[in-house]
Write a structure and sequence with these properties.
Elements (H helix, E strand, L loop, with lengths): L7 E5 L4 H12 L3 E6 L2 H13 L3 E6 L5 H15 L4 E4 L14 H29 L2 E6 L12 H20 L5 E8 L13 H14 L4 H12 L8 E4 L7
Parallel strand pairs: 1-2, 1-4, 2-3, 4-5, 5-6, 6-7
Helix pairs in contact: 1-7, 3-4, 4-5
């Protein structure tokens, strides 16, 4: 867990699940964490708990579908801590449903959060990292970004997109010594299944997660592994599942 202490880490979707546990995990290892999410009371409480334990955390209300709010998140991190070392594009939803259900609003939200939110994060962090000649941009994909199942067309498309964007970014930022990574989890215990709005699909997903999901600290450990590598080591992709998950 070397190379984490003192780093300034900005995390979107930090009010629960992956974002919350990762903020806590990295803070315990000496990182300064900046939490972005829409639920102000939640991130304020998380930041206070981290600070009360002797860590260093800041909460900034952020809707990742609003480019100016994502920019404010990163700007606030730099204003308070003088730099940004790591951006974790974590905010995401999983609105699974067959295309024939015509859940157009879900499709729009999925694209806005899962794809545009990642792009907005990159747009906010990249100028600082270019100037610093250092930085690390980690984006969250999914096992669904490596495979496809009925009902997952739009969600999988969004998570494939995260991988494509990150790989293009990796190639483009070589002159600036910036590292990039994609982390693709399988079934992990978070609030993500709650974003499924189709009742019949939601029932099946809830049962699947109950039978297969592993704790969310599995994701935090993967993030810490990626960040902790020496600066000349660039871990570009981590794909992990519960041992018993078949999909």
């Amino acid at each position: 867990m070397e190379n984490i202490t003192g780093k300034v880490v900005v995390i979107t979707g930090a009010s629960s699940g992956f974002g919350k546990i990762t903020a806590e995990y990295l803070s315990e290892r000496g990182a300064k964490v900046v939490l972005g999410a829409r639920r102000t009371e939640r991130i304020d409480a998380i930041a206070k708990a981290i600070n009360d334990k002797g860590g260093s955390a800041l909460a900034v209300t952020t809707d990742v579908t609003k480019v100016e709010q994502v920019k404010n998140l990163v700007d606030t991190a730099v204003k308070n801590f003088g730099k940004i070392d790591v951006l974790i594009n974590n905010a995401g939803i999983m609105p699974l449903s067959p295309l024939e259900y015509l859940k157009v609003e879900d499709w729009d939200r999925c694209i806005d959060i899962n794809i545009k939110g990642v792009l907005y994060g990159i747009a906010a962090a990249l100028p600082y990292m270019k100037e610093q000649k250092s930085g690390h941009i980690i984006s969250v994909s999914s096992v669904a970004g490596h495979t496809i199942r009925p009902g997952g067309a739009v969600y999988s498309a969004s998570k494939y997109s995260v991988r494509v964007i990150s790989e293009a970014l990796r190639q483009e930022v070589k002159p600036y010594n910036i590292r990039t990574a994609v982390i693709s989890p399988g079934a992990v215990d978070t609030e993500l299944p709650g974003s499924v709005t189709a009742d019949d699909v939601a029932l099946g997903i809830k049962q699947y997660y109950a039978e297969n999901a592993i704790p969310s600290d599995s994701f935090a450990r993967a993030v810490a592994f990626v960040i902790s590598q020496p600066d000349d080591v660039d871990i570009n992709e981590v794909l992990f599942r519960p041992t018993k998950q078949q999909l």
